[in-house]
Amino acid sequence: MRFAEAGLIMHEAAERFLAEFGGLYVNVHGPGISVARTPFEFDPELLIGEEDRFTAWSEEIGRHIFPLGELDEGRHDLGIDEFSEIYLVDRWAATFGRMPQAMENLVLGVKPRRLTG
Prior knowledge:
Structural class: alpha+beta
Strand content: 25-35%
Distance between the termini: 29 Å
Radius of gyration: 13 Å
């Protein structure tokens, strides 16, 4: 995987998550609990070329965020840290919380908590 060449090493939490959910596409739409529900896909290959963004946010928050896939048809990136916390990664970062609550938040349309930016 090209991520290792950019210094993004797949940690154990990412390995476990992708073994279970890798390749999953969830096609949800409509009103959610606090934001609209939007489709998401767990395929790290969709994020090749975004390595710098994940490296920068990892350094910013002091966690190792590994690329997971896309939210809202590529509008936002998704990543996971070594504690199984799921992040929205963009020009800003937000957390959906730790698994399994993070998955529930994605499906039900719970607004992620903005970290900074």
